Amino acid sequence: MMFEDVKKAVDRFSLNELRQLREYIEGREQQIELRPGTVDMEALLSALDDIRAGMTEEEFAEIERAMNEEYIEALDADE
């Protein structure tokens, strides 16, 4: 399903369904832990949007899982 298809489906939602969708999206956004100062998050999120274009939810979820499997500690400024 492409983004345009999703938007068309959302256009048919009731007010209650729109509220539920909003809560779901806000919950997903809160699951993402951003660490300020370690990366240009705005650029990263923009790049992820570009990468995600044309992918299925399953394909993107697989990539997201792989990116989150190993955390690499940032170097101190003295190192």
List the topology elements.
Layout: H1 3-11, H2 15-31, H3 41-52, H4 57-68
3D structure, described in words:
With 79 residues, the protein is mainly alpha-helical. It folds into two domains: 31 residues; 45 residues, no CATH class. Helices cover 63% and strands 0% of the residues. It contains four helices and no strands. The longest helix is centred in the first third of the chain and has 17 residues. It is elongated and about 55 Å long. The mean pLDDT is 81.
Major β-sheet, in short?
Answer: none
Distance linking N and C termini: 46 Å
N to C succession of SSEs:
HHHH
Q: What's the structural domain tally?
A: 2
Number of strands: 0
Number of helices: 4
Task: Please tell me what the overall shape is.
Answer: elongated
Kindly provide the radius of gyration, computed on alpha-carbon positions and rounded to a whole number of angstroms.
16 Å
Question: How much helix is in the residues?
Answer: 55-70%
Low-confidence stretches: none
Helix and strand composition category: mainly alpha
**Mean pLDDT rating:** 81
DSSP strand content: under 5%
